[in-house]
Amino acid sequence: MVALSDLLDDVVADVDALFVFSPSSSYYERFTDPDSNLDTPIVVVAPENAVDAETYIELPLEFNNVRDRIRFGIEGAMEAGVVEEGDVVACNVAVFDGDQDAVIRVRVEEKMRSGIYDLFANSRADPSVIRDVFEVAIELGKKGQKGKPVGALFVVGDAGKVMNKSRPLSYNPFEKSHVHVGDPIVNVMLKEFSRLDGAFIISDSGKIVSAYRYLEPAAEGVDIPKGLGARHMSGAAITRDTNTTSIVLSESDGLVRAFKGGKMILEIDPEDY
Ligand SMILES: Nc1ncnc2c1ncn2[C@@H]1O[C@H](COP(=O)(O)OP(=O)(O)OP(=O)(O)O)[C@@H](O)[C@H]1O
Ligand SMILES: [Mn+2]
């Protein structure tokens, strides 16, 4: 005879930590209630630490793909020394919209590191700059330009070196300006200019250094999925040649991909955001 709760008992048996993803305050209260006799450490993973959790990992995006979301939380916790290789954790997440509806058991292994945490936290550019560029790319992917799909290539961080490994395709509309990603006006400009060829170059602090850049990185040692064209190849290759992070919106399949160290780290569908 098996009781339904036995199933859950197996999932949470002997875990070293419980990761709670984006809990509401009322949901989180049950864990901090003085009468609760839970002795498992709790890690909150969320866009903001709205519940004042003691151990907290900041989520830069609400990754719609649950594996990405969990990976981000676990890689962040590994980095912070909260968990380590061999630990077993239970992840309490909302798979569908709304409240927590699943508990997923995960063994922490060095080889599960996908680089997704590293992409945001350890890029040369500020994490908030990477997040803002993602947001522009996602929005552009959702709406397109006047309803038509557009592609765009954003190269973020280490701008001086990136400028040295690229050349202008036309005059640079950002030449004398001091605008930053995340400013509402800039988002409008970036969308307008996304019809143009080439890449946007963005500094570590988010300043738009240039539009219209043709990248000329060395392409050896770049390993990206087959079928991606020149925009993706050059965007990936520049991240091997310099200490930059590329975020690419594909005109042909509408997906947003991020590259670092010559590798594809993340692939998301703007329609899910
Ligand atoms: N080396 C490069 N540097 C900057 N931009 C480039 C480079 N190569 C291509 N592009 C830009 O990418 C655009 C699309 O090229 P291509 O179709 O080969 O790329 P892709 O990877 O298939 O991207 P998409 O999925 O958007 O079609 C070009 O029109 C150009 O604006
Ligand atoms: Mn193409």
Which ligands appear in the coordinates? adenosine-5'-triphosphate, manganese (II) ion
Largest sheet: 7 strands, mixed
* Individual helix count: 8
Q: For the largest sheet, list the strands in their spatial order.
A: 7-9-8-6-10-11-12
Radius of gyration over all CA atoms, rounded: 21 Å
Give the averaged pLDDT, no decimals. 93
Amino- and carboxy-terminal Cα gap: 43 Å
What is the topology?
Blueprint: H1 4-12, E1 17-21, H2 25-32, E2 42-46, E3 56-58, H3 66-79, E4 88-93, E5 102-107, H4 116-121, H5 127-143, E6 152-156, H6 159-164, E7 166-168, H7 184-193, E8 199-202, E9 208-215, H8 230-241, E10 245-249, E11 256-260, E12 263-268
Bound molecules: adenosine-5'-triphosphate and manganese (II) ion (MN).
Catalytic activity: 2 ATP = 3',3'-c-di-AMP + 2 diphosphate
Organism: Halogeometricum salsisoli
Cofactor: Mn(2+)
Q: Any overview of this molecule?
A:
- The chain is an alpha/beta fold.
- It contains 8 helices and 12 strands.
- The radius of gyration is 21 Å and the shape is elongated.
- The strands form 2 sheets. Strands 7-9-8-6-10-11-12 form a 7-stranded mixed beta sheet, sandwiched between helices. Strands 3-2-1-4-5 form a 5-stranded mixed beta sheet, sandwiched between helices.
- Helices cover 30% and strands 22% of the residues.
- It binds adenosine-5'-triphosphate and manganese (II) ion.
Brief digest:
Diadenylate cyclase that catalyzes the condensation of 2 ATP molecules into cyclic di-AMP (c-di-AMP). c-di-AMP is a second messenger for intracellular signal transduction involved in the control of important regulatory processes such as osmoregulation. With 273 residues, this protein is α/β, with parallel strands linked by helices. It has 8 helices and 12 strands.
